[in-house]
Write a structure and sequence with these properties.
By secondary structure, the protein is mostly helical. Helices cover 65% and strands 5% of the residues. The strands form 2 sheets. It has a 5-stranded parallel β-sheet. It has a 3-stranded antiparallel β-sheet with strand order 1-2-3. The protein is globular.
Length: 866
């Protein structure tokens, strides 16, 4: 029997040794061992050039020095080494964009812990197969570890089917003299939905003793000197003769305009492109997706050289490399079977199985006689589009389905990354047609979601993999969540775990349907989610109170969209009260959630005319988010931008445009940067902030600036509406109304007229669907149209529009006088002014003498053209 405190090592290719940390479970007589793959103890030499340039991009090569993140590294070292024996397990989540350097950061953390002399740290990566193997061998609550341990799970989303069991088991560990630290790495981690919520279904309250705070976003490398240093180091490794331009403000500005300057991987890619093309300028004009495509073409050339000019071999090797990439690698034990299967489907029967296997292992070696994926991730994704199924639509979709049966979590994750990484960045309307790579990835995901025999656990995996903030996947995300909810509903009996999943996904469904503009359906889902969470809170108040607060906030937003303001206010007030209680107990965990409910509350109060109260609420939310953004800007700046935009809106409604200008401009600045990096997620937010900024510029009589902002917002909303009409038609209508007003203020009335007419027609369509929400906005757009028509001498048409607007606001004013007080008077006076051919001032005098007389005349069809 082996010594349970011993460590065993074995060769793991040229990457690392595999350290097996043995537990002390004496009950079954043998201690289960967990295999960790640590980085090399010493960084590889960085002096010689490489024959295969692309391999230098793989994180294990460490082609450039680790720079710019030492402060954050020190914080993680403190987290790892601060130990409470009564709570030995602590989990952190580190997120970052493609190429941000998450894996490299984790490697440096392993090394730093390994250098601590006072403790024999065991630190390394837990690979996909090892995580599954180890979980099958032991009950984790009974597993012991003899040393301080750091276990890193890269691509956490691909392990979403096993991580919940890991965390549930480790959460039951009573105590240990040694710390166990778990670091989860992933692109994104949305706290209220998706994979993180599935791993910790009870949220932060029940997981509080394990989950160490909210996900940490790896910051970009913003220092131009660091950016320049990485590019130069890569050029040196390549033995390049290319010289970077002098470090001037002009060069820094050119670098800052790229969408990749803050990401180490893309700085290295850019240097590689500079080296190959013998100059700098072209590389600086490329997007990150373009850089990835160039490197992927290099990988294809490498495969081509290995095929000995055999075209069939060349095509099949490329397909198999793409298949390995989408699966996260191919297992050595089943590689020959996989080759036989793929040859049969693609018609390459003449090729020899052993020869293909041998070549693939040489070209893409892993540590277990299998085939590795093409790395880095985004390069592998670019390779997929051209070579999976020979790049043919039908064959590639069929290959995706076969791959999904082998590695469902990895395939879903890779395809979602493809959608996000290849989102179109330019803002022209024709982007919808040009985003071919993204569309193909969406089509592949649709093929998976459309499988009629998809088991519940795989449907759950696919649904949870979908991000909340996405344009390209909105419909598919809603459809998959809808199907998951239906399947969970049909279960004859739901366990507590399934009931939690059901209630959580109902809330997700409400959010996803609302994002599509399906507000009635969203409301039904939100109401059911609240009802279920109320029943769960009876089982365990502490565990499920945060979930109830979340679903109440969702319900309030759904009612707000349907203009059910009183009921929305009741729901959000309960959410605010719950989050205040939670934040008093655990401010670090629930302060941000409180800010969300305060944000919602402010929007509702403003809509019902209680703007002073709304201002108090939004200012509290802004203060919370400003503080959070100062400590973790990468995570919280997007949320700060939302609150700043809402703050600016409320200040504008209070006729305080001077105070509104700064938060509005800051919101635009933040969202412009976010949209540059993540167009799929943040383009709608940028449009919203631009629209708001334009209104403020107009109030401040800065009309040229107002026009520029409004025109950009309209262009954005046209693109968005073309792709998602139900979701963005209201925003397009609002921005067109603003554009008409701005153009009219600049005396460009002929140009203003078509914008105003289009806005009116859009609002008419919207009013047919949700009358209460859009009738007031139709009235405002009709009033704008009336003013423009009158200025152009079309008085008869102007009077028709003005009368219709006046009739709408008069009826609304009777029902909600406080909410419509500001729009009621200007629109009524405009109608009287046009009808009587008098000034607005004289119309006001006339109206105030006997308001009800004029209102009755309006509804009786009199007083039009006196």
């Amino acid at each position: 029997m082996p010594d349970p405190s011993a460590s065993q090592s074995a060769t793991a290719g040229d990457y690392s040794r595999i350290i097996q940390i043995l537990g002390d479970n004496a009950v079954i007589g043998f201690s289960p061992s967990l295999g960790l793959s640590p980085p090399r103890r010493q960084r590889p030499a960085q002096t010689s050039a490489s024959a295969d340039e692309a391999v230098l991009l793989v994180y294990s090569e460490e082609a450039t020095a680790f720079v710019g993140r030492h402060k954050l590294l020190d914080e993680f070292i403190t987290w790892a080494t601060t130990h409470d024996p009564a709570h030995p397990v602590s989990v952190r989540v580190l997120t970052g964009n493609a190429g941000a350097g998450k894996t490299r950061f984790a490697m440096e953390l392993c090394r730093a812990l390994g250098q601590i002399q006072s403790a024999a740290w065991q630190a390394g990566f837990v690979r996909d197969r090892e995580a599954r193997r180890f979980l099958s061998l032991t009950t984790l609550s009974g597993w012991g570890w003899k040393n301080p341990t750091l276990a890193i799970f890269d691509y956490a989303l691909t392990l979403v089917d096993v991580l919940p069991a890991w965390m549930a088991g480790l959460g039951e560990v009573p105590d240990s003299p040694h710390p166990l630290r778990i670091l989860l790495l992933e692109r994104n981690a949305e706290e209220d939905a998706g994979w993180l919520k599935q791993v910790f279904p009870g949220g932060y309250s029940s997981a509080g003793r394990m989950l160490d705070g909210r996900p940490v976003r790896l910051p970009g490398l913003c220092d131009p000197e660091i950016q320049r240093g990485i590019m130069q180091a890569m050029l040196d490794r390549l033995g390049s003769t290319v010289a970077l331009p002098a470090d001037t403000p002009a060069f820094r500005d050119q670098l800052a305009k790229t969408d990749w300057a803050g990401a180490p991987l893309f700085l290295m890619m850019a240097a590689m492109v500079m080296h190959r093309q013998g100059g700098v300028d072209h590389a600086l004009s490329l997007r990150r997706a373009d850089l990835a495509k160039i490197v992927a073409q290099h990988e294809y050339s490498r495969l081509t050289r290995a095929s000995n000019s055999n075209q069939s071999m060349q095509r099949f090797l490329s397909h198999m490399a793409a298949l390995s990439t989408i699966c996260g690698g191919l297992d050595g034990g089943t590689l020959l079977d996989r080759i036989r299967q793929e040859k049969e489907f693609l018609g390459h029967e003449e090729l020899g199985n052993d020869a293909i296997a041998h070549t693939l292992r040489q070209l893409l070696p892993d540590d277990k006689e299998g085939v590795a994926p093409i790395l880095p991730d985004i390069v592998g994704e670019a390779f997929l589009f051209d070579h999976l199924g020979h790049g043919e639509a039908q064959a590639s979709s069929e290959a995706v389905l076969r791959a999904f049966s082998m590695a469902p979590a990895m395939v879903a994750t890779v395809l979602i990354r493809c959608v996000q990484d290849f989102a179109s960045a330019p803002l022209a309307p024709e982007d919808v047609e040009r985003a071919t790579e993204q569309q193909r990835a969406v089509a592949w995901l649709q093929a998976l979601g459309g499988k009629k025999d998809l088991p519940l656990h795989l449907l759950m995996l696919l649904s949870n993999a979908m991000p909340i903030f996405t344009l390209a996947l909105r419909e598919l995300a809603a459809t998959s969540t809808e199907r998951l909810v239906a399947d969970l509903r049909e279960l004859p009996e739901r366990s507590l775990k399934q009931q939690i999943e059901f209630s959580r996904n109902l809330n997700n469904l409400a959010v996803r349907l609302s994002a599509l503009g399906k507000h009635e359906e969203a409301l039904a889902a939100a109401q059911e989610a609240v009802k279920l969470h109320r029943s769960l809170i009876q089982i365990d108040q502490d565990a499920f109170r945060p979930n109830l607060a979340l679903s109440l906030n969702t319900l309030a937003n759904c009612r707000f969209e349907l203009a059910q303001y009183k009921k929305a206010s009741t729901a959000v007030q309960e959410a605010v009260n719950l989050y205040r209680t939670l934040a008093k107990i655990n401010p670090e965990t629930f302060r941000f959630d409180l800010s969300k409910s305060l944000n919602t509350h402010a929007n509702i109060l403003a809509e019902i005319g209680q703007r002073d109260e709304a201002l108090v609420s939004i200012q509290e939310a802004a203060a919370i988010r400003r503080a959070l953004a100062q400590t973790d800007p990468k995570t919280f700046r997007p949320y700060l931008a939302t609150t700043l935009n809402n703050l600016a809106t409320i200040l504008t409604e209070l006729r305080r445009p001077e105070e509104a200008l700064n938060p509005a401009q800051e919101s635009v600045t933040i969202r412009r940067a976010l949209t540059k990096a993540h167009p799929d997620a943040f383009r709608p937010d940028l449009a919203r902030s631009l629209n708001n900024l334009a209104n403020i510029f107009s109030m401040l009589d800065k009309r040229d600036k107002a026009l520029a902002a409004t025109q950009e917002a309209v262009e954005l909303y046209r693109t968005l509406t073309k792709a998602h009409p139900d979701a963005f038609r209201p925003d397009l209508a609002a921005s067109l109304t603003n554009l008409a007003n701005v153009l009219s203020s600049l005396e460009k009335h002929e140009k203003a007229l078509p914008a105003a007419q289009e806005a009116v027609e859009l609002y008419r369509t919207l009013t047919q669907a949700i009358q209460e929400a859009f009738l007031p906005k139709l009235a405002v757009s009709l009033n704008t149209l009336a003013n423009i028509l009158s200025t152009l001498g079309k008085r008869k048409e102007a009077l028709v529009a003005a009368k219709e607007a006046a009739a709408i606001v008069a009826e609304q004013w009777f029902q909600h006088p406080q909410a419509f007080d500001e729009t009621f008077m200007p629109i009524m006076l405009n109608w009287l002014s046009l009808g009587h051919k008098i000034s607005i001032k004289d119309a006001e005098t006339m109206f105030n003498k006997n308001q009800m007389l004029h209102i009755r005349a309006l509804f009786e069809g009199r007083n039009d053209t006196l």
